Structures are given as C-alpha cells and as structure tokens.
Amino acid sequence: MKDKNGKSSLNKVILYISMILVGVVMGSWAVLSRVAPSSVQGLSPLPVTPVAVAKAIVPDSNYNFIAQAVTRTGPAVVRINSSRTVASGQDTPDVFNDPMLRQFFGDQLPRRMPRSREERGTGSGFIINKDGDIITNAHVVDGANKVSVILKDGRKLEGKVLGSDPLTDIAVVKVTDQNLPTVTLGTSNNLQPGEWAIAIGNPLGLDNTVTAGIISALGRNSTEIGVDKRVKFIQTDAAINPGNSGGPLLNQQGEVIGVNTAIIQGAQGLGFSIPIETAQRIARQIIDKGSVKRAYLGIQMVTLDPTVKQDINNDPNAGINVTEDKGVLVTRVVPRSPAATAGIRAGDVIIRMDGTNIASADLVQQLVETRAVGDRLQVEIRRNGQGLTIPVQTGDFPPQEPVREPG
Fold it and tell me: Is 245 a catalytic residue?
C-alpha cells in the first residue's frame, strides 16, 4: 500500500514538471513568433544613404540659375572710376577785390577763383578677352583724363581708353595684367519677351550688385526712350541704377546679351541695354582701328502711311507731292553726300534696299548700319509713280553732321 502511494506521488510530480516545461516552451514560442516572425528574415537592413542625400539637397535648393550665372560671369565684371579736368570758366568777382572788404575780411576772401575743377564718375564694364579689353559705356569715360579699373578680387589696375562711339554709347578700356577673368558672350538675336534677364554692376558705388527680372520688350528705338543713339534697345525690368552703366545684361546661362546703358528718370522697372551684337561690332572697330567708321547715305526720311501722306500734301510749305501710301519718303538729301552723288532726290520713296522690302525709316537705318564704308547698296525707289533702281556707294559718316539724321 505504501509503495502504491509513493508511486502515485512521484507520477504527480513528473506530470507537474512536464506541464511546466510545456508551458515554458509554448510561451517562448509565442513571444518569439511575435517579435521575430519568419518573414523578417528576408528583409534587408535599412540603407543609410538617403540621410546623406537629404543633407546634400538643402544647399542645392538655394543655389539657383541666377547664382550659377553670377558665379560664372561675376569675376569679369569690373568697376570703372574715371576723372576729368574741366575748365571752371569763372573769374574772381570784382567785389572780392574791393579794398574795403579785404580790410575787414582779409585772407578769408578768395583772391582768385580756380580755373579748373576735377569731375569724377563711376560706372561698370566687363572684360571680354585675356588681352584685357573691357566694354563699357561711352558716357562712363567721356573726356576722362584718368581711368582706374577695380576687379571683384580686389585688384586695382590703370585703364586706358582705346576709343569710344557716342552714337551707340560704346567704349573700350584696356588693362594689362595676368590671369584676367573673362565673360562669355551670347546673342540677343533669339531673345523673346518674358525670358529671364540678370544685371550685374556697381550702382551708386555698391560693388557687385546683382538684380534680376525679365526681357520686357525688344527693338526699342531711341525716340521711344528719349535718347539720341543709333541703337535698337533691349528693355528689361531688372533694376538698373546710376553706376550700372556699362555693366552686362545676362541670360539665364550667364552669357552676356547686352550692355546696360539707360533708364527713364521717374519710372520704375524700365531699363535699357545695347544688344551685344551692336557692342561687339563697335568694340571690334575700336580695338582694331582706334575709332569707328560708320556707313552713311546722307538723307533725312520719314515712314509713310496714309496720315503722313495727307499731312505732307496738305502742307503748302512742304514742297513735295506724295503719291505713295507706304515706304520711306526722302524729305531731304544732304548736299555732296553719297545719296546726292548717286542721284537720290527729296520726294523719292524708298521701297526696297538690296532686296529687302522697306516699311520704316528705322529699317533703312539698320541696313545702312550693317554695311561698311564703301559698300554699294541697290536702292529701289518710286519717283512720280515710276520705279527706279539707284546704286549708292556708302560714305564715311561725317562728325559734323547732326546725329539725329537717320541715314
């Protein structure tokens, strides 16, 4: 009986221990199945590279195309300081020589007014080649006795004015030094209103100022903006202020497309630049020859339309009877000019030049500007209802002629 009770107790102990072991095993399996399911074994570790990429994107988002353009071109944009000596034209007033006044005021009164004074000006420019040739505005260095050029890297160099052309407001200054930065020249021929425009210069003495806007319009003539230049201007709303004159206008690639030159006083967002093709053409002549020779016909003219035709025919003092409704009317021929020598007369209506149909006086001027002195133009006209073709050999624009004469 005792043996049976002992065996029964031992069996109970073994059963209890077995149940405990099964519980431990089952619990462990449940815990492990939740924490580390079998599918986890197929996953790769999380990559760490996205963290590094996210950090790199932050500065790039602020480094836009304007900053890239300025980085590319800015070092070649310079400040130009000029000075010139001008006569004062003033003598000492007689009252200052009165003995009574001098008895009371002594040496406080000036004995002699200065005969001359120094005028100083500041503008901008940009270096176009390693030879140190700098394009700027003619009015920046007009009459300058001394020119200094300051680069963005701090170098201050003595500049020499190679020449200037007041009719286009383009001048070239030369400096000599090693490792000069240069700009990249672009083209304005394919510009469209609405494209980005970037201006760099030194407005009001604030060096290396960058402004941005858009191309507002193209082909603005001098009469539209109130200046007397032979240029078809680029209009932009990029801020241009005094001191920006001569600085570059850039496209979004950082290429120079124009030379900043003019603003309309009292207006905002109206700046004007000389197309780079015009600036290059003038600068090339200045660098090669020291001056600019400009083709010249020697005519004054007006664009015809029905209103202009009627006004001229109703004017008893006009001395011209107009029969054409379109084309360009020659109102005057300068004596001994190329046009006079060729036989063009007042009252002739130009309808075509070298195969190009003529619709405006501006177009005549543009075609003549692209020709060299001595080139021959085939000018087709209407005279008294008859068509004629007259060959005209261009002459050299005489400096004494009024600059407003289009032809």
Answer: yes
Q: What residues contact 383, with CB distance under 8 A and at least 6 apart?
A: 345, 347, 348, 349
The structure's pTM equals: 0.68
CA 335/CA 344 separation, integer angstroms:
11
Active site residue 375: no
Per the annotation, the verdict on 273 as an active-site residue is no
Among the listed residues 164, 245, 273, 337, the single catalytic one is 245
The residue type of 79 is: R
More confident residue, 343 or 28: 343
Dump pLDDT digits (tens) for 106-122: 555 555 556 666 677 88
Classify the C-alpha dihedral 81-155-183-64 as positive or negative: negative
Catalytic-role residue among 133, 165, 169, 348: 169
Domains with residue ranges and CATH for the chain: 70-174 (2.40.10.10), 196-289 (2.40.10.10), 295-396 (2.30.42.10)
Q: Mean of the pLDDT values across residues 268-288?
A: 90
Residue in 264, 230, 259, 263 with CA at minimum distance from that of residue 246: 259
Share above pLDDT 70 across residues of the chain, in percent, rounded to a whole number: 72
130 residue type, one letter: K
Give the C-alpha separation, 352 to 358, whole Å.
5
